[in-house]
């Protein structure tokens, strides 16, 4: 059976002018800053005018641990938004922007798929409205000003061995993980070791996604700890006097981007921190704006629920005062079989036993999300190779966990294929059964917060951390940062720190390699196992097949 590719479907979209999409939400044309005909930014003035309006209901879409079989979390997020609109609800979608790194690497785009996509697909997966470039520029302006301050006499007495602020770029490039800068003599400054992270791991990205307005943005930027003196006292971004210029660079990037689905429903696409190395959610300003404009807001959190949902609940909801009404966990029959030990090449053959064997991964995610007091429904994202017996096995397993699994065919049929899930989400959200609470209180010690996540979410036996890491956490507590939540940087492929351990393992340890203070964003980054904050390209990167064809269209994006 021949199927159209995502990009072919997107290219056939009958898009409406972005002013019409804004009109659906009551956004006047003068408050839309158009980027072409099909995308626009929403003005800060309009967003401020929404103060006092009642919020709609917030629905989180999360997933099982990703596998090479594919899960379709963004596709389901978009499909559910369309489905809610189809059944008469005023729904808005909130997703993240795509990073160039994975687009040209291995992961691909981030606009949904099939007939559940946000468009314009090519622009969204490339430069879009320039937000990531602005974040990259603001971050590296601070880097340049730190080295410049040291060069011109180092009035702040920065210890060059303790400059913690690295550089970033929005590309996967392992060669830049650890570098030496300022070689070449006196005129180039003082040589020191540093490195690059990918832009989506930048604290500036996290700050933009957690700030409520430009004033809050500048304050948070000023709070960034960039280096330390010899007495280990901190140097802040505001000491370098970079916060004002960084805010200017981010002025437009702070405004949420409005686009549309294939079915011409509104979607905010704004911000893009990775969930395996950052907090994995779209911007607070986009989510809160959408909540003022719609009855339902459907948003996603990156990767599996052990990372994305946990950070959504413990960081984003805590910081922004959000209370989700329901959660959807996306799973596929193919992924269950892969968790059950089936090789990717054999996923097309029926194997009910492997489905049953792989279901505990889904079961753990259900239990974890429920532990936050949020009602759960499972979306089985349908593939044509799924058999009735395999789907029935997943449904029966989920029923045993006290939840319901619903087969969804939005990839092939758009909103018509996801109506059942939309009705169930409304039922859960309207039931008032949500009793949301974060996993741990603010006052819990930092290392205990790490242990709580490791034991209750990952089902680990212990956290392994050197005395130096424990001492660093204690120092930050003494400095007044003990109330911050922790942001776990860990492989997305497993509950453990070993990407090859599928299923729902127990009896494992979580080794902590490094901890970083993100004082402006307002969390502690905990780097576990072998996770990298600057990914590398795979042996055969997607970039090798991306090109412009004879018709002038982009090919190879997926």
Overview of this protein structure:
It is built from 20 helices and 25 strands. With 558 residues, it is an alpha/beta fold. Helix 7 crosses helix 8 and helix 7 packs antiparallel against helix 11. It starts with 5 loop residues before the first helix and ends with a strand.
Mean pLDDT figure: 94
State the total count of DSSP E strands: 25
Low-pLDDT residue spans = none
CATH architecture of the largest domain: 3-Layer(aba) Sandwich
What CATH calls the topology of the largest domain is: Rossmann fold
Shape: globular
Q: Assign the structural class, choosing from mainly alpha, mainly beta, alpha/beta, alpha+beta, or little secondary structure.
A: alpha/beta
**According to CATH, what is the class of the largest domain?**
Alpha Beta
- For the termini, the CA-CA separation is 19 Å
Helix fraction by DSSP (H/I, runs of at least 4) = 25-40%
Q: What is the CATH superfamily classification of the largest domain?
A: P-loop containing nucleotide triphosphate hydrolases
What Rg is obtained from the alpha carbons, in whole angstroms? 23 Å
Oligomer: single chain
Share in β-strands? 15-25%
Largest sheet: 12 strands, mixed
The figure for the number of domains is 3
Structure annotation, total helices = 20
List key phrases describing it.
Domain 2, N(10)-formyltetrahydrofolate synthetase, 25 strands, 3 domains, 558 residues, alpha/beta, globular, Rossmann fold, four-stranded mixed sheet, single chain
């Amino acid at each position: 059976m021949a199927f159209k590719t995502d990009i072919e479907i997107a290219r056939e979209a009958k898009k409406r002018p972005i002013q019409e999409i804004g009109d659906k939400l009551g956004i006047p044309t003068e408050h839309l800053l158009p980027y072409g005909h099909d995308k626009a930014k929403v003005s800060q003035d309009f967003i401020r005018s929404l103060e006092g309006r009642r919020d709609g209901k917030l629905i989180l879409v999360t997933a099982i641990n990703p596998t090479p079989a594919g899960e379709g979390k963004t596709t389901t997020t978009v499909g559910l938004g369309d489905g809610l609109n189809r059944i008469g609800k005023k729904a808005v979608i909130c997703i993240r922007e795509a990073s160039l790194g994975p687009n040209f690497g291995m992961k691909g785009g981030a606009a949904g798929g099939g007939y559940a996509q946000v468009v314009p697909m090519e622009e969204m997966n490339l430069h879009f409205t320039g937000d990531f470039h602005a974040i990259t520029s603001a971050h590296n302006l601070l880097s340049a000003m730190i080295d410049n301050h040291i060069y011109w006499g180092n009035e702040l007495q920065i210890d060059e061995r303790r400059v913690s602020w690295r550089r970033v770029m929005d590309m996967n490039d392992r060669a830049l993980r650890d570098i030496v800068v300022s070689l070449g003599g006196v005129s180039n400054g003082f040589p020191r070791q540093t490195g690059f992270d990918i832009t989506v791991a930048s604290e500036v990205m996290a700050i933009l996604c957690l700030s409520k307005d430009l004033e809050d943005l500048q304050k948070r930027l000023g709070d960034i700890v960039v280096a330390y003196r010899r007495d280990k006292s901190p140097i802040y971004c505001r000491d370098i006097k970079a916060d004002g210029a960084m805010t200017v660079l981010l002025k437009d990037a702070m405004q949420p981007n409005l686009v549309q689905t294939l079915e011409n429903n509104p979607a905010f696409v704004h911000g893009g921190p990775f969930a395996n190395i950052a907090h994995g959610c779209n911007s607070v300003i986009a989510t809160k704006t959408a909540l003022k404009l719609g009855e339902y807001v459907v948003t996603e959190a990156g990767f599996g629920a052990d990372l994305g949902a946990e950070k959504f609940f413990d960081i984003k909801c805590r910081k922004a005062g959000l209370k989700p009404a329901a959660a959807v966990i996306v799973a596929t029959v193919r992924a269950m079989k892969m968790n059950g030990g089936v090789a990717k090449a054999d996923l097309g053959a029926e194997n009910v036993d492997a489905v049953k064997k792989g279901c505990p991964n889904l079961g753990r995610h259900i239990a974890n999300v429920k532990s936050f007091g949020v009602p759960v429904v499972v979306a089985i994202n349908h593939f044509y190779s799924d058999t009735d017996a395999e789907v029935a096995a997943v449904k029966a397993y989920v029923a045993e966990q006290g939840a319901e699994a619903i087969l969804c065919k939005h990839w092939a049929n758009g909103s018509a294929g996801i109506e059942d899930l939309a009705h169930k989400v409304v039922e859960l959200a309207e039931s008032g059964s949500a009793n949301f609470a974060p996993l741990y209180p603010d006052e819990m010690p930092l290392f205990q917060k790490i242990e709580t996540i490791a034991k209750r979410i990952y089902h680990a036996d212990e956290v392994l951390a050197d005395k130096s890491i424990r001492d660093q956490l204690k120092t930050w507590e003494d400095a007044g940062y003990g109330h911050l939540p922790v942001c776990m940087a860990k492989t997305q492929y497993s509950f453990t720190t070993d990407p090859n351990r599928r299923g729902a393992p127990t009896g494992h340890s979580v080794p902590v390699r490094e901890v970083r203070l993100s004082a402006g964003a307002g969390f502690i980054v905990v780097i576990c196992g072998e996770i990298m904050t600057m990914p590398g390209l795979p042996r055969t990167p997607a970039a090798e097949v991306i090109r412009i064809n004879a018709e002038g269209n982009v090919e190879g994006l997926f």
